[in-house]
């Protein structure tokens, strides 16, 4: 019996405004509610696509993390989301927790490119671990827990300090 995986193509349809970032997807989570949740390497946003059929996810919706929590740096500085998880009505996300380094450029000499690679930069937004309530396919800042109304679900992040989070 052949146990080789069967690979199918899945079409992901993003809005025009996200086209430049569609190749920067660095985290993905398929929810039990037929939504595909995505994090980007180059933004401070979380993206949602809806299941349409066996080969298509569409109806792209864009969520700015700053609508739910404050960031330690401006939103223009990426979070570089590397992981997404779901637990008890929360969508959790984690930044890369890495330094940023310049990339080599083809028009530069080897010496200049090596010099570019040695320059490291710290961006505080990359050191985030956060959660956002996820209710009926929508991210919300706060909401009563669907199963335990006496509990309030709230968006939050681990505190970022000079020593970590």
Strand order of the largest sheet: 1-5-4-3-2
User: Which parts are unreliable, with pLDDT below 50 for 5 consecutive residues or more?
Assistant: none
Biggest beta-sheet profile: 5 strands, mixed
Provide the domain count: 1
- The helix content is under 10%
Termini distance? 49 Å
Strand content: 35-45%
Mean pLDDT: 86
Radius of gyration: 19 Å
Order of secondary-structure elements: EEEEEEEEHEEEEEE
Shape category: globular
Give the helix/strand class: mainly beta
How many H/I helices?
A: 1
Protein described:
The structure is a single chain. The chain is mainly beta. The protein has one domain. 5% of the residues lie in helices and 40% in strands. The protein has one helix and 14 strands; from the N terminus they run E-E-E-E-E-E-E-E-H-E-E-E-E-E-E.
């Amino acid at each position: 019996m052949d146990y080789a995986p069967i690979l199918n193509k899945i079409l992901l349809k993003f809005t025009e405004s996200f086209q430049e970032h569609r190749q920067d997807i660095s985290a993905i989570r398929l929810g039990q509610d037929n939504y595909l949740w995505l994090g980007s390497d180059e933004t401070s946003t979380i993206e949602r696509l809806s299941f349409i059929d066996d080969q298509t996810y569409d109806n792209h919706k864009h969520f700015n993390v700053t609508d739910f929590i404050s960031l330690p740096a401006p939103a223009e500085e990426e979070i570089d989301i590397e992981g997404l998880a779901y637990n008890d009505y929360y969508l959790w996300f984690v930044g890369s927790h890495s330094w940023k380094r310049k990339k080599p450029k083809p028009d530069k000499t080897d010496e200049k490119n090596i010099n570019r690679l040695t320059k490291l930069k710290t961006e505080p937004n990359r050191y985030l671990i956060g959660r956002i309530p996820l209710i009926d396919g929508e991210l919300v800042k706060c909401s009563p827990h669907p199963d335990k109304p006496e509990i309030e679900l709230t968006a939050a992040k681990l505190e970022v300090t000079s020593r970590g989070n």
